[in-house]
Amino acid sequence: MTADRDAADQGEPTPAMRAATARGLQEQFPGVRVWFGAATGSWWAMVPLRDGPQLLEAETPQRLRDAILNARARG
């Protein structure tokens, strides 16, 4: 069995699923860089704002999406 299959069998997102999720968020928020930190187990985004880029961290893609929306609303 591959590592991707082992992760999928345990209900964890595979690296391919994480990459697809990151791409989806980046498409939703042009200019924002999104990735999953394997070492931290967190989702990350670098959000360009008027006062400079802001680094965001969240436990799930949904929470990261909310954090990006909040950061952009603040400026």
From TrEMBL:
It comes from the Bacteria. This is Uncharacterized protein. It comes from Actinomadura algeriensis.
